[in-house]
Every structure is written in C-alpha cells, then in structure tokens.
Q: What sequence folds into this?
C-alpha cells in the first residue's frame, strides 16, 4: 500500500507497473480512504467478469454444461461443424 505522496512522487513508475505487470496498486489518502490504480484493460476484464457472474441465465447454462461434461453426456459437434473436412 502506498501513500498518495509516494504515488505522486513516482507516478510514471507506478502507472507503468500497473499497466505492464497487470498489478493493481492500492493508494491510501491521509484520511485513510484508499483507491486503486489499474490498467484500462484490467478494469474492462473485471467489469466483464462481474457481468458474467451477475447474469443468472448465463451462469445456469455454464452449470448445465459442467454437469453434462462431467457425465460425458454433452453435445458433441461433428467434424463438419468444427470446420474439419
């Protein structure tokens, strides 16, 4: 965890670290409040994950697929459907 002053003094270094290493950085303000610095790519990935997890219909389909996969009873596409000739 960094203070705002530490973050400000080395802004470029920390932003590069967050973007290049996909490491969110937690920065704390004097009053104790904190915020996260992360790359836009990572933020969008997190938002997509939250969307998928909150989509009950999609999560139900995933659960059904896991069950049929575990039983080896799921749909098996033909070679033609997979693009094999």
A:
């Amino acid at each position: 965890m960094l203070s705002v002053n530490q973050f400000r003094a080395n802004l470029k270094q920390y932003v590069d670290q967050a973007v290049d290493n996909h490491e969110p950085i937690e920065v704390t303000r004097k009053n104790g409040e904190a915020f996260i610095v992360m790359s836009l790519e990572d933020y969008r990935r997190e938002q997509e994950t939250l969307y998928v997890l909150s989509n009950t219909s999609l999560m139900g389909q995933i659960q059904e697929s896991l069950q049929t996969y575990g039983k080896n009873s799921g749909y098996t596409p033909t070679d033609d459907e997979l693009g094999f000739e």
Notes: The CA atoms of residues 3 and 9 lie 10 Å apart. The mean pLDDT is 92.
